[in-house]
Amino acid sequence: MSSATSRTSTLGVAPPPRPTLSFDHLGCVIAIIIGIALFAAPFATYRATRIASGEARFLIEALPIAMGTVIVVVSLGVAVVAVLVRDPFGRLGSAVIGLAVLLPALGLSAGFLTPADNTFARVSPSLGFWLLTLSFSLLAIDALARLRLGPYGRLVALAVGVSALALLLFSGIWDSLSILKEYHTRADTFWREARQHLLLAFGSMAAACIIGIPLGIAAYRLKTLRTALLQGLGIVQTIPSIALFGLLMAPLGAIAASVPLAAALGIKGIGAAPAFIALFLYALFPIVANTIAGLSQVPAAAVDAARGMGMSARQQLVEIEMPLAFPVILAGIRIVLVQNLGLATVAALIGGGGFGTFVFQGIGQTAIDLVLLGAIPTVALSFASSIFLDALVDLAKGAHA
């Protein structure tokens, strides 16, 4: 035993602990996903025609050797950072670098695999690409969560992400991909269905707010109305969307047949009318329930103070209760919008239009890229709307803190 060790033991002071290597648990999962994506899953799928059976192409086959090597090196570097680095800025930077290399490489892969002057061949992203995108995105989201960004920071991050995606789309890097070829042949139809999808989702949400918030206020005041209203709207929530569309077709068809004005206004058994009404009915419950919850959470002291100042019941509601309840009501609106953007896809089954038109056409034609042409915008809109309204909820809470 050395003299230094003897002195430490004599003084009763424990020696400093040896440093240990610490692995991030989520980072280990991300690293495993990256390994599967690089070495066990195809990067792209090649089809001789848009509906032909696909041929899987692994990373080494789907890209020039130099670009493939860059993807592998960068991906392995991201995996190491995910496992070993805890600093959120380091994690975020590595995820951004990974996405900045991966996303343009997909467009390069499409040009590399498609024979020259061949307008029939199709190249689509395959499991490996999606897994790499998922892993890098998870790492970025985890880093942003560790940074604990405020509402303005989240809005800036959303704007940066949307801008980067728009840059990729308008740069033409992805034009050789199958999904972009599907878009270019249906550009006019795509934007028409996009307008219809947004009209159904946002229009039904607006109608639900106009009707649901006053109903919620009335139900908050009257307990008997509250119980009956919430139970009735809760029953509507349990009805599957397709079943509710079907239930609305018969009465709306009868109204259109007996009331010419209704038919002239577009109210009929199929089309946008039953879809709009169904989305409106689904949206009522979160709006009404959150209005009641928000008003219930208003401090009694604030109401008593307003009453002591001589405010009327209407003034108390408008100037005190509703502003304090607004963050909770806005959270209900967020739920409704994300829900309606997804449910509006099903409206295409009854002729309601929207992005679901491409989804069901693609299913019928066994064209997966046509399905993605409708599904990806729906998911992107839901994700962006959720982040945007989450930030607004936090801003509303901060304004009344």
TrEMBL record:
Q: Does the keyword Transmembrane apply?
A: yes
Keyword annotations for this protein? Membrane, Transmembrane, Transmembrane helix, Transport
Domain of life, source organism:
Bacteria
**One protein family per Pfam:** BPD_transp_1
Q: Which GO terms describe its biological process?
A: glycine betaine transport; transmembrane transport
**Transmembrane residues, as ranges?**
21-43, 63-85, 92-115, 127-145, 152-174, 198-220, 241-267, 273-296, 317-337, 343-363, 370-389
Q: Which GO terms describe its cellular component?
A: plasma membrane
* PROSITE patterns in alphabetical order: ABC_TM1
Q: What family classification does the UniProt entry report for this protein? A: Belongs to the binding-protein-dependent transport system permease family.
Q: Where in the cell is it found?
A: Cell membrane
Q: Where is the ABC transmembrane type-1 domain?
A: 194-389
Topology in membrane: Multi-pass membrane protein
Q: What is this protein called?
A: Osmoprotectant transport system permease protein
Instruction: Name the PANTHER family on file.
Output: GLYCINE BETAINE UPTAKE SYSTEM PERMEASE PROTEIN YEHY (PTHR30177:SF30), GLYCINE BETAINE/L-PROLINE TRANSPORT SYSTEM PERMEASE PROTEIN PROW (PTHR30177)
**What CDD domains does UniProt report for this protein, alphabetically?**
TM_PBP2
